[in-house]
Amino acid sequence: MTELKRILLVEDSANDVELILTALSENSLANEVVVVRDGEEALDYLYRRGVFRLRMEGNPIVVLLDLKLPKIDGLEVLATLKADHALRLVPVVVLTSSQEEPDLLRCYELGTNAYVVKPINFQEFVEVIKQVGLFWAIVNQPPPDLSLATRRDS
Prior knowledge:
Elements: E1 7-10, H1 14-26, E2 33-36, H2 39-46, E3 62-65, H3 74-83, E4 92-96, H4 101-110, E5 114-117, H5 122-139, H6 146-153
Helix pairs in contact: 1-5, 2-3, 3-4
């Protein structure tokens, strides 16, 4: 049996975190969802440093990334991930309220895998998150974890 990979949710809004977790659980996704509240925590998690230095090895199956974050914004987190050999293949889904064309363009230039605008309507929000969760955790075939492959090769 294959191990269920974790989903990393990078979101500073407590209400959005609750809605996202509820929507994912309504889909009966068994994947663990790790929630971090800012860009600095997201990078600490991904690089296994600070409070996350002892976390289990391996990259998340997908990063659900808000753009408007404290400390380090989502664009900088995305740029850091996509510039790193061990992390660049980790799928990143930008979940944002921004419909600004410059944000959309910049995210795709940096290598996001998807850009999802959070609906304002509660039911639509839940449905969108269900679809995102199903696709990235169940349907999509994830890339190999380069951080583990690199370690095995050395």
